[in-house]
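Hi all, long-time lurker, first post. I run a small reading group and we've been trying to get comfortable going from sequence to structure in the token notation. Rather than ask abstract questions, I figured I'd post a concrete chain and ask someone more experienced to write out its structure so we can walk through it together at our next meeting. Sequence below, copied exactly:
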Amino acid sequence: MMLAMMVAALSFTSCGGGDDDETDGSASIVGVWECISSDYGEWEDYLDGNTEVGDLLQINSNGTYSIIGNGNDSGTWKQNGKSLSLKSNDSYSVQVTYTITQLTPTNLSLSLTENVLSVKVSFRRAK
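-- Answer (accepted) --
Happy to help. Here is the structure in token form:
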């Protein structure tokens, strides 16, 4: 059950990268982001439904998000400083909180560390 919840929650987090810890106070997370790299570490072979390079993450100003591609998902989001919380609409309704390591007008990088799981996600603004 726990593995199923992690897989559902992490369907978003398969595009990892960037530990730049760089943010631009004027940059908005709202928009369409294209996955450009991913790093699941040793767990990559065990997680299903992962977002892949080229998949799109759409973050809407009304507090909803969707992932279009291999890891299709949708739900709600909240940003609080360098934290981005995503709550999936799937049957598990899991909420996962990522650390924003980079947010500029053109780049978004997220990281997640939970026990032995470490994921890094990098995106480029598509729209």
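A couple of things your group might point at:
The chain has one domain: 2-125.
The domain at 2-125 is CATH 2.40.128.280 (Lipocalin).
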